[in-house]
Design a protein that fits this description.
The protein is an alpha/beta fold and about 325 residues long. The protein is built from twelve helices and seven strands.
Length: about 325
């Protein structure tokens, strides 16, 4: 085993040098290339649509509410620009919306074809496992996981044809959870889907990238502050018999405190998304997070589970149950 160590180090060095050389190659020319983005009503998807349009891409901006303020802002941005920004209704849980989006893209493809799919749409909430209904679990899986798979499967033929890029919005919460396990599980699942897809698409020249933001709650509308009263009122009688209002209030305060400390600089995440689409040698994963958030991921990845459980248990509620 140790005899092979020098060879492995040499291979790693050659890979790093090759990657650096590729990243220094000429940047992509956006003109004449189309990109479809899901979840453009607000947040990262909205910011990315504006950025890519200004860079010269033809942008298909999927919005859940095409008549909403976010969609109207995108339309104002595109006014008088020969159709390089097209805002469309796109609910990723509806197969007919996805197929309609594909038909629209096919009928308005620019000269260099379809370059990128950005699976950005997602939802989040807070609550311990037993506090949430089965219907809510199904909804989260449909939006955050199956929605991305649904759009990916629809656009794979085009992406293979034009040797394009697929970008998925994940999160550092894929590695651990702090009261939002329902969100964490969908992000962990999409990471595994991407790992399989990335390897399978290499033979076609299609590159697959994952974006892993830290806490950017104040940059998006994905997770509004939670109300302990609303949480309590939605609990089943069985759950109310186990938990008390003080515990629910403390957990809500803890989670809201985390949200209040989120970064407002969403452009950092958008920079990573743009690099994933335009770099000659994009990264498989872009972790855009604070140092302490990266440290948590490091502990989770390299230390025994008991260590991470101890860290998170210490951070979580210390209020005694009734």
């Amino acid at each position: 085993m140790w005899a092979a160590a020098p060879l492995l180090l040499l291979l790693l060095l050659l890979l790093l040098l090759g990657r650096r050389w590729r990243r220094e190659a000429a940047a992509l020319e956006p003109a004449g290339r189309a990109v479809l983005i899901t979840g453009c009503d607000s947040g990262f998807g909205h910011l990315l649509a504006l950025r890519l349009h200004r860079l010269g891409f033809t942008v298909f901006a999927g919005c859940l509410c095409p008549g909403g303020e976010g969609a109207r802002r995108l339309q104002r941005e595109a006014a008088g620009d020969a159709g390089r920004m097209r805002v469309l209704r796109l609910d990723v849980t509806r197969g007919r919306d996805v197929l309609a989006a594909k038909e629209l893209v096919l009928s308005h493809l620019p000269e260099r074809g379809f370059w990128g799919l950005v699976n950005n749409a997602g939802i989040s909430t807070f609550g311990e496992t037993g506090w949430l209904s089965m219907e809510k679990y199904e909804k989260f899986a449909d939006v955050n996981l199956l929605g991305s798979i649904r759009t990916t499967l629809a656009f794979l033929p085009l992406l293979r044809k034009y040797k394009g890029r697929i970008v998925f919005m994940s999160s550092i919460i894929a590695y651990f959870t702090l009261g939002n396990g329902i969100y964490s599980m969908t992000k962990a699942a999409i990471e595994k889907f991407c790992d399989a897809l990335r390897l399978e698409m290499k033979k076609f020249g299609v590159q697959v990238c994952i974006i892993q933001p830290g806490n950017y709650a104040r940059s998006t509308k994905i997770q509004p502050p939670v109300s302990a009263e609303e949480i309590w009122n939605e609990l089943s009688e069985e759950e109310k018999a186990v938990y008390n209002k003080e515990y629910v209030q403390e957990r809500a305060d803890f989670f809201n405190d985390i949200l209040s400390k989120g970064s407002t600089n969403g452009s950092e995440v958008v920079d990573a998304m743009v690099d994933a689409l335009m770099s000659p040698a994009p990264k498989a994963r872009y972790m855009v997070a604070k140092l302490k958030e990266k440290a948590l991921v490091f502990v989770c990845a390299l230390f025994p589970t008991v260590v991470m459980d101890s860290v998170l248990s210490y951070a979580l509620s210390k209020v005694k149950l009734a």
